[in-house]
Batch of 2 targets.
Target 1
Amino acid sequence: MTKKKLLDLKTGVVAEVDLSVEEQAEHDARVQAYQDGAFDRKILDLRTKRNRLLAETDWWGASDNTMSAEQIKYRKDLRDLTNGLTTANEVDAVVFPTKPSGA
Amino acid sequence: MSKVEVDQVDPQSGTTLTLGTSGDTVSIPSGVTLANAGTVTGIPASAISSGTLADARIPDLNASKITAGTIATARLGSGTASSSTFLRGDQTYAEAGGGYTQSAVLTPSGASVEFDNIPSGTNSIVLKSYGLQWAGSPGNISMQIGDSGGYETSGYQSVDFYRGVSAGDMGATASTSGYILAYAFSGTDYWNGNLSLNHVGGNRWVMGYWANDVGEYVRMGSGQKILSGELTKLKIFNAGGTNADGGNVQIMYQ
C-alpha cells in the first residue's frame, strides 16, 4: 500500500498513513498514465532541444554566408534526429550530432 | 468548682465587665452558642480557623499581593481560552486574527504530502519548501486542492515555466489536472521556493510560485482553480508516483 505524509491542522497530528482505496486507485491510474506517456514526453523534449540547436545555426543559411559540408550535414542530422523513433528507450538512446568546430 | 446561675451579669459600677484575669482561659463548651447582637472587637485574624467569611468581610486585595501561583483563565475573561485564542481588552477570549498561523514543518515521505482540515475562513496560504526531493523518476510535480468532497483532479488552469543556466534551456508546460509546480522533475532535482495560494472569492484560488533547483534552474508558475466548496485540504505529489526522500515543507495560513 502506498503511503502519504499527512498533517491535520485541526489536531496538529502528523502521521504517515496508507492511501485510502480510492486514493490508491487514483494514484495507480496517474502513475500508469505517466508511464504510458513516456514516449510522448521524451520525443517532445527531444524535438524541443533539437529545434533549439537548429535555431542556433539558422544564421548559417544567411544569403551572405556559404555553409560548409560539415555544417550542412550537422543541420541535416539534427532534422533527421527523430526519424523512426517509436519507443521511449529509442529516444533515450539518441545521440546528438557534434556541432562543427569553428562554427 | 462553684457554679453561678444567673440570667444576666452586669458591671457593678461603670460600663465595663471583665471575665477572668490575665492568663486565665474562658471555655465555651461544645454545643454552646455564643450569640452576638452587638459588637465584638479585638479578635485577631489568626483566630479564625474555620467557617467561611462573607465577601463583604474580605477587604479589597492589592494586586501586588499576588506573587505566586496561576490565576485560572476563567477569572480573567469570558469565552473560551485556548492555544488559538487571546484575551482582548474587553476581557473576552477571541480567535486571533490579522496574522498568519504557521503549521508544523513536515518532512515529506510517501507518495504525497498533505495538509488537511485547513480552517474554515482561510483566504491565504503560503507554502514554503526547502530541498523537496523525490526518488527515482518523479516527473511533473503538482499540487491539488480539495474541499469536503475530496480533492479535485480537473479544471485547473496552470502553467509552469523553467529556465536553466545553460543557453536556451527553458520551456513551459500547462496542466489541467493540478497546479503544476515543476516539469520533468528528476530524482536529483530539488524544489526550493515559496508558493502563495489566495482566495479571490467564489472558491476561486489563484496560485503563484518561485523556486530554484540548486542554482541550475529557476522555476516559476501560476494558475487558478474554482473549487466546488470551501477549501479544506491541499496536497503535493508527483506524476511518477515515487516517494519523497528529502527536504521539508510548511504552510502558513490566514
Target 2
Amino acid sequence: MKFISKGFLIALCVFSLFFLQVFNPVAAVAQKGAKTAKPPAAHPKLAEANYAFDVNAMGDMSDFDPATVQFPKGDTIKVAVVASFTGPAAIVGKIYWAAVAWAAYDINQRGGIMVDGKKKFVEVIQADHMGRLDQCKKVAERMALQEKVHVLIGTDGSHLMKVINQVADKYKIIAQNITSTSDDLMDATNFSRYAFMSCLSSSQVGSGLGYFYGQIRKKEKRFYIICQDYAFGRSIADSFKKGLKQYYPQAKIVGEDYHKLFLTDFAPYLEKIKAAKPDVIFTGDWIPDGANLVKQARQMGLKQPFAHLFLDDPNFLHEIGPQAATGNIQITQYGVEGGAFKTPEQIKYYKTWHDLWANRWKTEPYNSRLFEHGSGNLGSYRQQAYWLFSVIERAGSTDPEKIIAVWENDTYRLPTGKVLRMRACDHKVVQDLHVFEYVPAAQQKVSMNIEPYYWYKDAASTGLTWRIPAEKVMPWMDKNLERCAGKDEWGE
Amino acid sequence: MDVTASMYAAQAIHGIAFGMVLFLIAAGLNVIFGMMGILNLAHGAFFMLAAYFCYSVVAVTGSFWAALLIAPVLTALVGVIVERFFIRKVQIMGAMGELILTLGIAMLILGGVKFFWGTENLPISVPPILEGMVHIGALDYPIYRIFMIALALVVLAVMTLLLYKTRLGKIVRAAVSDREMVNALGINVPLVFMFVFGIGVWMAGIGGVVIAPILTVFPGLADQVGMYAFIVVVTGGLGSLKGAFIVSIIFGLLSSFGIQFFSQLAPVLIVGFMAFVLAIKPHGLFGVKE
Amino acid sequence: MIDKMKRWLPWAALIIALAFVPKIFGIYYMNFFITFAVFAVFSVSLNLLLGYTGLLSFGHAMYFGAGGYGTALALKYIWNLPLLPALSIGILGAVLLALIVCPLVVRVGGTAFAMMHMAFAQLLYVIALKSRFITGGEDGLANFRIPPFSIPGVVSFPLEGAPANFYYFAIIVLGASLWLMWFFTKTPFGQIQVGIRDNAKRIDYLGFKVTHAKAVVYIMSAAFAGVAGSVYAMFQNVVAPDGYLGLLVSFTPIINTMLGGIASFFGPVWGTAIYALIEEIIFRYTDRVELVIGIIFVLVIMYAPLGFSGLMLKLKFKWLMFKNKRMRQAA
C-alpha cells in the first residue's frame, strides 16, 4: 500500500477533478432533466415536409412598406384580402393586409411565380366587407366576377367566412381562411372543395389547453369559464370543457358564464368569479372585451391568471403593466419552444421584418407596437400566405383544380421548424400548437434569446413555451361529411 | 358580513355604479329633450368624443384630473357649435329634421374620431389615488367605482340646484314653458338654449371621462353605451330627470343581479323591461305626452 | 289617345329595359339591381308610414327581418317546401308581428312611435341572437335550399344556380309590390293617410277612425317590408341578426327616403338608387365611410330637406317659370 505514492494520489485527485468537470453528475442530471423536459419528437406524419420555407431565398424586402406598397397590374396572379378595413374592427384588415402584402412582395422580388408557362407577379387587392353580411357577399362577388381574382383570403367572423366560401364555390375560385376558427366552416353543410382552412380551429384550442393543464402543467385544478355569448365564444368554451374532460379529468369547472358582446361593465361577472375562487380563468374574448375583462378584474383585486388566445395586443399589455398579465397562459399557432432564435435563418427572418418596422415604416398603424415583432398571429398569417404561394408555384398553375390537387395532404415547414399538414378530406390543418406563459421583461430571455433579450421592456410577454403535439390536438372532423366517412383523424 | 351577503352587497353596489354612469349620460339627454324637445341621437357620440379627449389630455398632461376638467368642457364646446350652426337651422322641420340631423352629426363624430385618433384601442388608466380597494368585513370594493357613484351624485345635485335654485335655472325653465314670452321679456332665448344644449353634452362628457379608465377607448364606444342611455331615457320618460334616475338604477340592478342569477338572459331582461314599460305606458314611466 | 301613350311609353320602355338587363350586363350588375330593388321596396314601405301618414319608425327592420327569417326558417325546416308558400310564410310572419304590435303603437305618434319601434326591433334582435338553436344566433342560417319556381303541371324554372331566373322572379315580385303600394296610395284610403299626417284631429271629426286607419296602413307597410326581407333572404341565401334586424337596417330606409324625397311615392326609390351609387363609387375609394354618410345627411337635411325629388320638383318649377317668362317676353 505504501507503493501508492503521493504523486499517484495527486494525479488521482487531478484526474478526478477533470473527470468531474467533464462528467459532472449535477450537470448530467440537469442534462437528463432537460432531456425529459424536451417534448417527444414530432409525429412521423409531420416529420418531413414537401416544402420548407427558405429564409435565404427571400427577395430584397428593403423597400417594403405596408402603407405604400404597390402591386403590378395586368396579367397577374390575383389575390383579394377580404376583411374589415372600415368600421370598428378596421385594424384587423390592416393586419391581414400587412401579412399578405409582405409575402406577395417577397414573391415578386424573387421574380414572380411560373404559372401556365409564364412567369407572373402576384397582385394583392383590398376588399372591404365592413363587417356586414350583405357587403361581404357583394364585395366577394365583385372580386370574383369583375376583378377576376384567383384566391379570396379571409376573414374574421365565421358568418362572413361562410359567405366568402360560398362565393368561391359558386364561381370556382379558391378561398383561404387564415383566421376564422369555427369548426363548422368545414362541416357537411358548409364544406366546399374550393375552401381551405389554413389556421387553427376552436376544437384545437380547447383540447390544447386541456392537454397543457392536465398533462404538462399538472398544477391548477379549478377553472372558471367566461366567454362571449355567440357562436365563437360558445364553441371555444365547449372545446375547453371537452379538452379538460379528455386530458384532465381531475379538473373542476367552478363556473361558466357567457356575456354579451362589447360588454362595458364586467363587474357583476367578476363578482361571481371571485366567489367561485378558481385557480385559472379561461376566456376566448378578444379586444375590446378581453381587455376590459382583464383590466376590470385586476382593478377588482382578482389576481388569478387568465388562459386565453387573443389577449396579446401590445398596447393593452403595456396599459395594464407587467404584473397584471404575468402568469397568463396563451395558446398559439405560431409559437416555438426553447428560444425563438436557434438558427441564423430564424434571426434573419425576424430582423428583416423588425428592422423595417423600426426604421422605415412611419404610417399609422403599421408603425405602432402591434406590428413590431411580426410574430404571433401576424407571423402565422404571413406564413399562411407564403404557403398559398408555394402551393400555386408547385401546382404551376392558377387553375383551381391543380391547386386543390397540390394542397390536399400537402406539408409545409415554417421558419420556426414546425410542419403544417393540410388534411385532404376536410381541408383543415393538422399541426402542433404551442402554449406559453407571460412573464416580465427580465424573464423573457428564455424565448427572446437574442439582443435585447426582451420582447417588451415595460410589458409582460412570451416566456417559457411548451409544445402540444399535433396528435393530441386534432381538429374536429365531421363524420357526416361524405369525403371523410370512414377515415381516421389524419384523413386517411 | 359573511361571504354570500358581501357578494350580493357588492353586486348591488356594482348595479348602482353602472346605473349612475348611465344616468349621467341619460340625464344629459333628458335635459336636452326636456328643455328643447330635441332627441339628440348624437349623444352617444359626444360621450365617446369626451373619452377620446380624455385620452389626449392625459397623454399631454399626464393628469386624469385635468382630463376630468377639460375634456367635458371641450366636448360641450363642440356641442354648442353643433347647436348654433346646425340644429337651429332644422328646428323648423320638426322632430324628424332634428333626428336625421343629429344622426348625421353622430356619423360625422364617429368618422372624425377615427380620422384624428385612428382605429386602435386606446388605453387610459385609473389615477393612482383612486386605485385599490376598500375593505368592509368580507366586502372588497374598488375605490374607483365608489368615486364614480359619488361624482354622479355630485353632478346631479349641482344640476338640480342650478335648475331650481338659481335665476338662470328659472329662466331656462320659463323659456321651455313659453318661449315667446321669455323672448318678449328681452331675454336672449337662443342663447339660453345653446347653453342648455352645452350643459347636456357636458354631462355626457363627464360620463365619458369617468368611464374611460374602466373601458378601452375605441370607435365602437358610442354604440356600446349610447344604446343603453337611449333605452333609459325612453323607458323613464323623455324629459323626466326623475324617471331617468329611477330607471338607471333599475337597469343597473337588473343588469347586476340578472347576471348573478340568470346569466345568459341578462340583456334580454333589460330590453324586455323597456318593451314591457312602453307597451303599458308608451311615453315612458314618468313621461309627458307631447 | 296620344296622351295616354305618352304616359305609358316610359313605363313600357322601363319594363323592356329591365327584361334585357341579364343579357346586357353580367351577374354582378344583375345582383346589384336585385339588391337595389329589395331596398327600394323596403324604403317605399317605410314611406307609407313616414311620408304618407307622418309616422317615423326607427325599427322597421323588425318586419324586414320577420320576412327574411320567416322564409329562411320555413325553407330550412319544412322539407320540400315550394317557392310561393315559402315567400308567403315570410310575409305572414311580418303581418303576424304587425298584428301583435299594432294595438300598442297606433295610439301614439311622433318621438314615442319612433322610439318604441327602436325598442321592439332591438328586442327582436336580441331574441334572434339568443335563440341559437332555432335561428343560428349570430351566425344565422345559411345554405338553405332555394326551391324552383314552379306551377305544378305547367312549368318549372330552377332558381338556385340560375342567376338570371332568380333575377326575373325577384323583379316581378318586387315590381308587383311597388305597383300594389302605389295603387293603395291612390285609393280614398290612401288619401285618408295624408289627412292623418296633416291634421289627425280633423280626420277624426270627419268620422273616420284614425287608429283603425293607422292600423291598416301599418300592417300594409309591414307586409311589404316582409316581402322585401323574404326575397332578400332567398337572394343572399343567408339570414343573420346583423343583416336583417340590426339598427343600420332600420336606418337605411330612412336614409334612402330622406335622400330621395319624402313627399313623393318614388322618392325612396330614387333615394335607394342614389345611396347604392354612393356606396359603389365613393366607398370603393375611401376609408372614411362614416364621414361621407354624415356629411350627406347633414347637407341633405339642411339644404334639401325634400330630397332628390324635392330638388327635381324645384328644378321643374324653375324651368316652367323660365319657359313662362320667355313666352311672355316673346309675346
